[in-house]
Amino acid sequence: MNIETLILGEGGTGEHGADLIKNTTTQDFMRDVVEASGERPVLVDFWAPWCGPCKQLTPVLEKVVRAAKGAIGLVKLNIDEHPEIPGQMGVQSIPAVFAFKDGRPVDGFMGALPESQLNAFIARLIGESVDDAADIEAAEAALEAGDVNTAAQAFGEILQNDAENMQALGGLTKCYIKTGDLDRAEQTLALVPPAKAESAPVASARAALELARKADDTGDVESLRAMVAENPGDPQARFDLALALNAKGDRQSALDELLTLVAKNRAWNDDAARKQLVQFFDAWGPADPVTAAGRQKLSSLLFA
Where are the domains of the chain? Predict the structure, then answer.
């Protein structure tokens, strides 16, 4: 088998050229994925040679990407040879697929989906209207600014037109979380179709709900700060402080506390600080700048 076939798979050449399906490396990830996704969406397939479900998923992924006739690209990354990027993105199991648009991850799933679900995933990714994207962005900005009513109304209007818009459904879930109505948040998540249960917006909302429930069991921020100041070596106090800070919306401070705990005592409580950081990243979403910086710092600690 020649090099071109190894990179593209059989039938990978033709009208859309050699960049439709390719393998990448840590060094080329920026060019092949982040920059390339400014021209069209790019799927990133995180895989490994020993992974049985990966061997099932990748050929089907290649088939549906070719069928899209250049509307979307596929980039494959062997996590054994290049662990840095999946480490930064919090990939814990494979196969894992992330969809990038305009330089940032916007959706994704885990596991080997059947062809029909992959087709639906790609159709949703490349078929989203500019108006929908703008409405989602405005709603998310309102939620981030604390204008929950405006955000909830916008997400609700989007869902009236597209009941399976998972970004809007995840956003509406977070609106309920912001108001403390965790039961309504859980009811909203229950509306997610099983085929989309692992999509990135749903995973983010689910993680945010779990964090909100955890926050009920922590103390207030100032009391926990005093405990950490009095005994900086107390891992439980620092862990609880991070949860309380996140509940108050102070993501950067919550990140800093858990990174400190990873650096000082990574093995504490069965690697609890690292696992909690991954849940933070899921809840905050891949586009949040604190997530991006946090994944990079965590990766530096883990691979130092």
Answer: 3-127, 130-213, 221-302
pLDDT (tens digit per residue) in 247-270: 888 999 999 999 999 999 989 999
175 part of the active site: no
Select from 146, 95, 125, 108 the least CA-distant residue to 249: 146
Residue 104 sits at the vertex; the CA angle it makes with 170 and 70, to the nearest 5 degrees, is: 105
- pTM of the shown model: 0.58
Which among 287, 300, 291, 242 is positioned nearest to 140, based on CA atoms? 287
**Catalytic residue flag (residue 51):** yes
The residue annotated as part of the active site, out of 51, 65, 255, 283, is 51
Q: What is the pLDDT of residues 185-199, one digit of tens each?
A: 999 999 998 878 878
pLDDT confidence band for 135 (50 / 70 / 90): confident
**Amino acid identity for residue 102 in this structure:** D
Architecture field, domain 130-213: Alpha Horseshoe (1.25)
Please report the sign of the dihedral spanned by the C-alpha atoms of residue 111, residue 114, residue 116, residue 119: positive
* Given the residues 54, 203, 237, 261, the one annotated as active site: 54
